[in-house]
Structure formats: C-alpha cells, structure tokens
Design goal:
The chain is α/β, with parallel strands linked by helices. The chain folds into two domains: 4-58 and 300-398, Aspartate Aminotransferase, domain 1; 72-296, Type I PLP-dependent aspartate aminotransferase-like (Major domain) (Aspartate Aminotransferase, domain 2, 3-Layer(aba) Sandwich), CATH 3.40.640.10. Helices cover 39% and strands 18% of the residues. The strands form four sheets. Strands 4-12-11-10-7-5-6 form a seven-stranded mixed sheet, with helices on both faces. A four-stranded mixed sheet has the order 1-2-3-15. Bound molecules: pyridoxal-5'-phosphate. Pyridoxal-5'-phosphate (PLP) is lined by residues 49, 105-107, 110, 135-137, 187, 191-192, 220, 222-223, 248. Pyridoxal-5'-phosphate binds at residues 49, 105-107, 110, 135-137, 187, 191-192, 220, 222-223, 248.
Length: 399
C-alpha cells in the first residue's frame, strides 16, 4: 500500500505547482474526521474550505449522489431535470430570490452575477465597485473584482470596469460611484482575507448608496451562505437584502456547484443565449445540493450552528486571553471564525497551522493574518474541546 510520501512524490511530478499542499494524501472522510494514506486521523476544522458543512461523505448526500448517478448523470441545460428544478425551488423558496442560474463554482457564479449586472444596467454602465480585501474568485473577471493586488500580479491587463473601495469606508465607496457604475459587489464577511465581518451599519449604508444611485447590490455569499454564519444566508441577519446573490461552496456538500440568484425583474435581462454552462447544475450535483439543503432546513439545524458557534467563540476568547502575546481577539459569525494574531503571532501563523496538522488538527491561516476555524457545521462539542486543547498546547509551546 502506498503511503503519503509516495503519493506526494508522484503528485509533485505531474501537477502544475499552483498549490501549497499539506503533505498528506487524504483517502477517507466521515463526519468531521479525515484519514490519510498513512492511516493518520485528522479532526477537520477546514471542511475543504467551508464546503463539507454536513461533514465528509454524509450518508444521505452520498446516497442521493449514487442514486442519481445510476439514474441520469448528465443531459446539459438543453433539457429540464428533476433535481435541478427541485433545487431551484428550494433556493428561491428560502431566499429573497425568484430566479436561479446554475454554474459549477463560486467564481463562475460571480461571473454570472457580473454579466447580469452589466446587461441589466444597459450600455455604458459596466463598472463594478468591490472592496479592498475581498475575494471573488480566480477567473479573469473575478480576479479583477477581487480587491487584493497580489492576485492580479502577472495577469494584466485585467478586464476593465472594476474598481475597489477602502474596506469599511462609506465615503470612499460613494466617491467611486460614477456614470459608469452598475453595481457594488461585496461579501457580507470577507472570508479569505482574514475573516473580516462587515458591520451591519456599513452594509446598510451600502444598500442605501445603491438605492440612492440606482445601482445593484451583489452579495457574494459563496463562503457565508448555506448556514455557515448561523442563518441559511448571512444577509438574513443583517437587515440588508441584495439584488443579486451568489452561493456555492457548501451547497453541494463537496460536489461542485455554484448558483447566482436574483429577483424576477432583474433576471429578465438574461434572455435566451446570453449566458450558459454545459455542466451547470447537472443532475448529480443538483441531487447532492437538494439533499444538502433539505438537511440544513431541518428544525434546529441552524440553531445548533449558532450555539456551537457561540461555544467556539467563548473557547477561542479564552485562548486569546491566555496567550495575549500571540492572539488578540476573535471575530466572525456562526462557524466562520478567526483568531486574530498579534505581530508575533502572525510571524508564527504558518508554524501554528503546521504544528496542529502534525497533531491531527486541520485549520488554516487566512490572509496570513488570522487562524481560521470553519469546521463542518455538524462538529460536536468534544471535537471543539479537542481542537482547543491542541491549539492551546501549540500556543503554549511558542510563548
Ligand atoms: N467568493 C468567495 C467569497 C470565496 O470565498 C471563494 C472561494 O474561496 C470564491 C468566491 C471562489 O469560489 P470557487 O473557488 O468555487 O471558484
């Protein structure tokens, strides 16, 4: 049987080197646990980057996938399929939206949102304002929308029509609104750049600006959606409803799907032939998403997410208080949480993640700024305690 080292050696010979991977080849997952090719067990506080929210290989989702794969795997969007229609009904039935476009990833969902904002707003209105620190994907348009210059380097010229406002600064945002602006695009909480929630007042001010200037508000809920922040979508707890929303990551609990949602009136602007995807919302991924959504809509699922989130916050706050030279505070919503590090902590961030990995705990260092905790939403209290004990041990050894 080949172990981690052999698989890594083989992989390193054939992959284009875009990823800095942990030295583990994962072979099995169940609930919050993963096992690698050496048989080592991990407690997962990463969830495949906020994807496997019901835990790994959830039996109900796996069964739905297997059944659908054995029945009908793909026909393209030249036809209707049962799971795709059911999924669209579930999404519109539980959000502000009336209409859905299905794609295969978060970036593609955002591409669809950008195209919709432009075509709906009409000629000459093409500019999207997004925020510094945002992350919207790795396709060229979504990279251009992403407000982190490090992701732009080497890929210029980027598509035109994207500008960035200072995070948290309404005046900077309004100053950028001009005759060409069609939309403001933001994550309700910036996940990738370091778990940075946008204040409710700030988000409400953004909504008011959009209304005042007659431009669209796009919420990228790729990471914050599907229960991650304690409500099905983050916007529900913010008193702000967007015009367009994108949802991906956890929607298929591990299968690739991205969706763009909007209202009846705005959706009308994307007519036949204006946008398409061969695979988007194909029967197998849609069946996974239907099963996932139904489980998330069960009574108490979201209540539990909120309670576990509060518990994890309390535990992380205790850790921050115990190691003030390394950590300062905790931020985030629901089970999308970050332990903010001091300068000294930041210097050790990668090492902390590496040491936890060695001890069988998976977390990451978001934006090279905070330790991010995004466990499956079904994480139990013992798993939280176990992770906290290991985290405290690592921080203790560094302080
Ligand atoms: N938008 C947000 C907020 C994200 O966090 C991500 C991925 O991390 C994306 C978009 C891109 O999603 P994908 O990697 O599925 O294209």
């Amino acid at each position: 049987m080949m172990g981690n080292a052999e698989w890594k050696e083989r992989g390193d010979k054939v992959f284009i080197g875009t990823y800095n991977r942990f030295p583990a080849t994962m072979v099995r997952g169940q609930g919050c646990k993963l096992w690698d090719a050496d048989g080592k067990e991990y407690v997962d506080f990463l969830s495949g980057i906020a994807v496997c929210s019901l835990g790994h290989s959830h039996p109900v989702v796996a069964e739905a996938v297997c059944q659908q794969a054995a029945t009908l795997m793909h026909v393209s969007n030249l036809f209707y399929t049962v799971p795709q229609t059911e999924l669209a009904e579930l999404l519109t039935g539980h959000s502000f939206a009336d209409r859905v476009f299905m794609a295969n990833s978060g970036a593609e969902a955002n591409e669809a949102a950008i195209k919709l904002a432009r075509i709906h707003s009409g000629e000459g209105k093409y500019e999207i304002i997004s925020l510094f620190g945002s992350f919207h994907g790795r396709t060229l348009a979504t990279v251009a929308a992403t407000g982190q210059p490090k992701f732009h380097v080497g890929f210029e010229p980027l598509p035109q029509g994207f500008v960035h406002a200072e995070f948290g600064d309404t005046a900077s945002l309004e100053a950028l609104i001009g005759e060409h602006t069609c939309a403001i695009m933001c994550e309700p909480l910036q996940g990738e750049s370091g778990v940075r929630p946008l204040d409710v007042e700030y988000l409400q001010a953004i909504r008011r600006l959009c209304d005042k200037h007659g431009i669209l508000l796009i919420f990228d809920e790729v990471q914050t959606g599907m229960g991650r922040t304690g409500t099905l979508f983050a916007y529900e707890q913010l008193g702000v409803t967007p015009d367009i929303m994108t949802v991906a990551k956890a929607l298929g609990n591990g299968l690739p799907i991205g969706t763009m949602l909007t209202t009846e009136n705005i959706a009308r602007s994307l007519g036949v032939g204006t946008h398409a995807s061969t695979f988007g919302g194909n029967p197998v991924v849609a069946a996974a998403a239907v099963a996932t959504m139904k489980l998330m809509l069960e009574p108490d699922f979201l209540v539990n997410v909120r309670e576990k989130g509060e518990y994890l916050v309390r535990k992380l706050v205790e850790v921050a208080a115990r190691f003030p030279e390394l950590a300062t505070s905790v931020r985030g919503r629901g089970l999308l949480l970050g332990l903010v590090l001091t300068e000294k902590g930041i210097d050790s961030g990668a090492e902390i993640v590496g040491r936890l990995f060695e001890q069988g705990i998976l977390i990451n260092f978001a934006g090279n700024r905070v330790l991010r905790f995004i466990p499956p939403l079904i994480v139990d209290y013992d798993e939280i305690d176990f992770m906290i004990e290991k985290l405290a041990g690592v921080l203790d050894s560094l302080s």
